[in-house]
From TrEMBL:
It is a multi-pass membrane protein. This is Major facilitator superfamily (MFS) profile domain-containing protein. Residues 1-36 are annotated as: Disordered. The lineage of its organism: Eukaryota, Fungi, Dikarya, Ascomycota, Pezizomycotina. GO terms for cellular component: membrane. One of its GO terms (molecular function) is transmembrane transporter activity.
Length: 366
């Protein structure tokens, strides 16, 4: 002798069927759960309004989204600058630390190994503890080891510091795109990824320029310390402005705060259909063709000692192709592996960074 007593709960887990996407983001939605009562004559709908503690990243203002995307892009910029900034100072470092050529190659390339291996740990931690705490801790880890690299002029500390700072810096590689995916839907992801990944492409270009100037005027030790200071500034800004973006963590906080430990509500399909991840694949094709064209152009023009503009044009073609291919690939991974985007992104980067660390040892075979 029991009847259903329906409880209406406010939740962001279920998408409203209102006609516009703006209403979807701004309107609190609802789902129902049944509860039995001993009174057979009672069937009612009781509104249970939860406090507005679910800080949905997709409902943030456009200004906050762009600011967050630019902030995490600086994280990736620092990671790529750290990889190339010491290249003009390799001979000076080798002389001061009394390193042979092979050991100096290890100092340079072991950072790439850290960038390749770090995302596996960082991605898993971000999906367990949230994006923000992992992002912050990784930057602290990078600052610590990058600062220690030149201390004491120790070859062992230099090698260990380069590897561990690469692990910490890989948070920019591992989490920049997933954080953007947390804030934007599939229909907005293309432009948002362009904002978040544009600045890092300057890292390999301006890193050697800064490294050359500073090596001549301040000493190679400041190559590490200036980047640590820059990253500390980014970390300080993030401490006051960066919010958590990972939905399962936000939902878990909501349920814990309200004392509701029921199973998570399932998402309904958004009104108007869904985006198929495979639609991103054709966008990779132009980049796949432009990259080898740019490399061949660059290699031929450099070998023939043509004008520097011709050489740079080949580099430009390669960078444009690389950018187009990487954007489409990242967008595909984010659409295909929504809740595990960080892990998928880490897996896709591992081989490329591993090869970046291996190629310097293979130059004698070419």
């Amino acid at each position: 002798m029991a009847s259903e007593h329906t409880v209406v709960r406010k939740s962001q887990d279920i998408v409203d069927t209102s006609p516009t996407s703006q209403d979807v983001e701004k309107t609190a939605t609802a789902t129902t759960a049944t509860h039995t009562t001993s009174d057979p004559n009672v069937t009612s709908v009781v509104p249970l309004i939860l406090p507005d503690v679910y800080d949905d990243p997709r409902a943030w203002s456009a200004r906050r989204k762009i600011f967050t995307a630019v902030l995490v892009s600086f994280s990736q910029l620092i990671a790529l600058m750290s990889a190339s900034v010491i290249s003009p100072a390799l001979q000076v470092i080798a002389r001061d630390l009394d390193l042979d050529t092979s050991t100096m190659q290890i100092v340079f390339s072991i950072y790439m190994l850290g960038l390749g291996l770090g995302p596996f740990l960082i991605a898993a931690c971000s999906e367990t503890f949230g994006r923000r705490p992992v992002w912050m801790c990784s930057h602290i880890f990078y600052i610590l080891w990058n600062t220690l690299c030149p201390v004491g002029s120790s070859p062992g500390l230099m090698i260990a510091g380069r590897f561990l700072s690469g692990v910490g810096a890989s948070v920019g590689v591992a989490l920049s795109s997933p954080i953007v995916a947390d804030m934007y839907g599939p229909e907005e992801r293309g432009r948002s990824l362009a904002v978040a990944t544009f600045a890092p492409y300057f890292g390999p270009a301006i890193g050697p320029v800064i490294g050359g100037v500073m090596t001549q005027h301040t000493g190679w030790q400041w190559l590490f310390w200036v980047l640590s200071i820059f990253d500390a500034f980014v970390l300080l800004v993030a401490f006051f402005t960066l919010r958590e973006t990972y939905e399962p963590i936000l939902r878990r906080r909501l349920l814990n705060d309200e004392g509701n430990h029921d199973k998570e509500f399932r998402l309904r399909e958004r009104a108007g259909g869904s985006v198929t991840p495979e639609y991103r694949v054709p966008m990779m094709v132009p980049g796949v063709f432009l990259m080898p064209v740019g490399l061949v152009w660059y290699g031929w023009s450099a070998e023939r000692h043509t004008h520097w503009i011709v050489v740079d044009l080949g580099v430009t073609i390669f960078v444009v192709g690389s950018f187009m291919w990487a954007q489409a690939m990242i967008a595909y991974l984010l659409d295909e592996f929504v809740k595990h985007a960080a892990s998928a992104n880490a897996a896709s980067r591992c081989l490329s960074w591993a090869m970046a660390g291996e190629i310097p040892y293979s130059h004698s075979l070419l």
